[in-house]
Amino acid sequence: MKLFSFLSREHSIAKPGFNRWLVPPAALAIHLCIGQIYAYSVFNKPMTQIIGISTSAPDDWKFTTLGWIFSIALFMLGASAALFGKWVEREGPRKAMFVSALCFSGGFLISALGVRLHQIWMVYLGNGVLGGVGLGLGYISPVSTLIKWFPDKPGMATGMAIMGFGGGAMIASPLSVTLMDTFKSVSSTGVASTLLCIGIIYFCFMMFGVFTVRVPAKDWKPEGWTPGLTLKQNMVSHGYVDADTAIRTPQFYLLFGVLMLNVTAGIGVLGQASVMIQELFSIASVGEKMAVTVAAAGGFVGLLSLFNMAGRFFWSSLSDKIGRRKTYNIFFLIGALLYVAIPIIGNTGSVELFVLCFCLIISMYGGGFATIPAYLRDLFGTTQVGAIHGRLLLAWSAAAIIGPVLINYIRDYQIETLLMPPSKAYSITMYIMAGLLILGFICNSLVKPVLQKHFVISDAKSPEPSDSNSFVNEMNQSHLNKNISTDTNYSFYIKLLLAWLFVVTPMIWGITQTLIKSLALFN
User: Fold this and answer.
1) Which of 135, 399, 412, 453 lies at a CB distance of 3.0 to 4.6 Å from 77, suitable for a disulfide?
2) Do residues 165 and 367 make contact, with C-beta atoms less than 8 angstroms apart?
3) Is the pLDDT assigned to residue 102 strictly greater than 70?
4) Rounded to whole angstroms, how far apart are CA atoms 262 and 266?
5) Per-residue model confidence (pLDDT) at position 258
6) 26 CB-side CA count, 13 A
7) Cα gap 407→395, rounded to integer Å
8) Residue 282 domain-assigned (yes or no)
């Protein structure tokens, strides 16, 4: 019973003197783990050789069979976030993050058994269904909490958490490969043992977030900041809209379209990035000297992960300055131009320009994920933003199916039916992706402020927010205020340093591994 009491929202309310900069590491501890889903493809080839070991046997699973694991997981992410969003707001992030750790890590344990017994339904259940529920709960709970801790910098706050989801693949990919190489033998591919180890490692890492996270007291606000209306052109509301009311407003469905179209365009390409660059720059199309190797393609995927992560923080932070709608307009207009340019660049044989374009595209894909919670906060307020965000993530579920289907089936149709060379099979899909982004631009342009009649609380006379203090000044002021803090200077800074080192160290390792592998692209 003490455990359930500890997990309750009441016991996770921050005491006077708690510094909000301890919350981002807690959020990153969750998102760096659940971001593993973007690296799940490293298991695909070994899982097609579970029986044959060195090659695929007739009874081994096919790539098309394994591809459903990723789709089921992302579908369940959106579905569980929508279903349990209000529960997360009611029960608090600590309980939600704990359940997320149980589901996500437990999914690996079930999948490990499924691989061992060669039962694909157990893998679907483990990494797909149960893991997907863990993804959904783990995704929204820290994001909602950070928005409440950083009302003065909501874009930056969501970017700090969600960049961990984008960067999780940079850690998971080399970690998974290393573990599989360690456990591999003449009678095993090492996948089952790797899944078991990853489940245990991730559970321990996620528990750091569970123990560290706090929610602000009801009347808390950052020192030196006064809540109020911001620039009218940025459409920032004062007050909040109930989640059940929010889904009856046109703004919700316009943002649903904005997110779904942005994600559809990005996720279809992200899932085929390695194959695409190898086919566009194959020996047949550009010659042996300029052809992209398998190792170089792996470096390309790593670079995309790096820009996916960096873009989440950069673009969401920029949105605090220029507004959410302008930020999304940049995504859609520049993204559409880049997609149209891809076939032309492929014909020129310029690998460097191709890589640059896709790194920009994926940075805006990641930026779209990180900016949407702040967009929702601006329009609907902070009180139930987690529940609203959860329901909006159904757009991600839809995009996770539409995007890969568009890329994969159109490509296969052109190659198998029209007998088109693989290097020429992506032009139509790139133009379709550009068209989707133009539709997204139209949806985004139609977003208007939410009518006051929908608000539970409204106070249009609140003053403007003052400039927020710097990071260092904020730490010093909140820590040294003798009326609310009892820690010493040293203990506070040591605690803060250790918390950040805990999450930053694996990120640095992942980034280093990514940069080393990406060098193969330019050699």
Assistant:
1) 135
2) no
3) yes
4) 6
5) 96
6) 28
7) 18
8) yes
The helix (H) or strand (E) run that includes residue 458 is strand 457-458
Q: Name the token pair of 128.
A: 């797909």
**pLDDT, position 487:** 45
> What are the angstrom distances between the C-alpha of 125 and each of 42, 112, 130, 133, 212?
19, 11, 6, 11, 30
Position 434 scores a pLDDT of 92
Tell me, yes or no, whether 177 and 255 share the same domain: no
First-to-final CA distance of the chain: 59
Tokens of 450: 């939410």
Domain holding 408: CATH number?
A: 1.20.1250.20
The mean per-residue pLDDT over the stretch 324-340 comes to: 95
Query: How confident is the model over 200-212, as pLDDT tens digits?
Result: 999 999 999 999 9
DSSP summary character for residue 19: -
Tokens of 382: 């902070």
Q: Are residues 202 and 247 in the same domain?
A: no
Report pLDDT for 436: 93
The answer to whether 161 and 406 are in contact (CB under 8 A) is: no
Q: Are residues 176 and 292 in the same domain?
A: no
* 14-25 exposure pattern, b = at least 16 Cβ within 10 A, e = fewer: beebbbbbbbbb
- Which band of pLDDT confidence, cut at 50, 70 and 90, is reported for residue 336? very high
Same domain, 365 and 404: yes
Domain boundary among 424, 453, 482: 453
Q: What is the pLDDT of residues 150-167, one digit of tens each?
A: 888 889 988 988 898 888
Evaluate if pTM is beyond 0.85: no
Instruction: Provide the domain limits for residue 41.
Output: 20-217
Query: Is residue 262 included in any domain, yes or no?
Result: yes
Q: How many domains does the chain have?
A: 2
Residue 382 per-residue DSSP state: S
More confident residue, 487 or 15: 15
